[in-house]
Amino acid sequence: MKKDFLWGGAIAANQAEGAFGRDGKGMSTADIQPFLPDASPTELNFNNLDSAGYRKFKDGVYIYPKRQGVHFYDRYKEYIDVLAEMHTQTLRLSLAWSRIFPNGDDAEPNEEALLFYDRLFAYMKEKRIEPIVTIFHYEMPLNLIDSYGGWANRKVIDLFVKYGQTVLRRYQHAVKYWIAINQINLIHKEAFASLGLLSDQAQHYEQLKFQAVHHQFVASAKLTEFAHELNPDIQMGMMLADSLTVPYSCDPADVKLNFRRNRMQFFYSDVLLRGEYPEYARTYFEDHGIKLDITESDQAVIRSHKADFLAVSYYWSNTVKAGENTMDPNTTVKNPHLKANRWGWSINASGLYFCISEYWDRYRVPMMIAENGIGYKDRLTPDGQVHDDYRIQYHREHISELQEAVREGADVFAYCSWAPFDIVSAGTAEMSKRYGFIYVDYDDEGKGSGEFYYKDSFFWYQRVIDSNGTDLSNL
Ligand code: BG6
Q1: What is the mean pLDDT of residues 286-299?
Q2: Per the domain annotation, does 227 fall within a domain?
């Protein structure tokens, strides 16, 4: 890898910080996600909430793990210390919108929150860990849902831009790499967490999602414009959760569906990296009765202020089959060649090679791996060890596929594991779905000593970092 390649990890404020309601923090979408141990994803349906579900979770009495996260707000120095001990070079983290603008539409930002991030960045600098900052990662202030209807409302563009400008201005000298919005393409999977939408808010739910993400495009482009004028050193990125699929078979119907599905996945980066709505998307909208409000000035800002780099998260790969699947990205079939973890996330390292190469060939902009990792229920031995050879294997195979893509020309400047230490899961709000190289002793109900234990993968990743990726061998 390049000499200045950054090896590190990624976390999100709402899954790590905790400190619910403290120092002026407002309520966010993440704060109402309950831990429901026996609920299936369809029962929980958190990312596809209707208004009754929303009220139930908002006003209910549940365990809400994200309200305490892993106490990163109070313990950030301990976490940064342990990352420094692993020789971590970068930490991608997000800022809590609902901490800085508790209601989303406040006249002034919450100074206490800004001071927290001042301290955090100063400490990271002392420990030589480069921050990569996501401005919005799944924790929209709840007031923006109650009073505005989430990102479907055009007014939210300005509210978000005001928040973004506040943090860009404040941290411009501490942070070079910025990502406006986490995984902007997951509109069909995460309409609540990412767009703040309720499924019964409009008759045409899909149209609502595309309108909302259009507003996110405009907001991203406006922030890119602002950042470039503010400080030319800043690099503003856009982010995709890689969702490219492979065809189930060589049946032309599978191949064609696969092509069309993938093209609609490129849509988001085509808009933000090429600067315009592609024709195939316009046809898709026409065919699906989707009418969007896109103004001349929206198009002008998108055209003139493209993102500087592409951040990609990669976990699994998906397979599509004509007849069984549709254009809905939530529909896929099982790939018989792949194994999966207990949450059904299929493991396919070569998918990372494939997507990086596809994005590079299409856009030729610098890229970073913003997230890559695997969740397991780890076992802490009585003498405080975690033998996670499965995690080492996962990262080894993925890093080596990344290196292959780089050898063939892709320009990648960072690799961030998700997550370097255990945090609360985004999808299921479990603590026991662990990703870290460092075991953090809290359980699903937030109980535990909070002690850190180094998993085997800690020592392995440390050596990967020290050797700039040349030593991926077993310990
Ligand atoms: C990514 C999200 O899509 O997946 C993270 O950006 C999330 O916030 C990660 O934690 C893993 O998902 P989960 O549900 O296992 O935590």
Answers
A1: 98
A2: yes
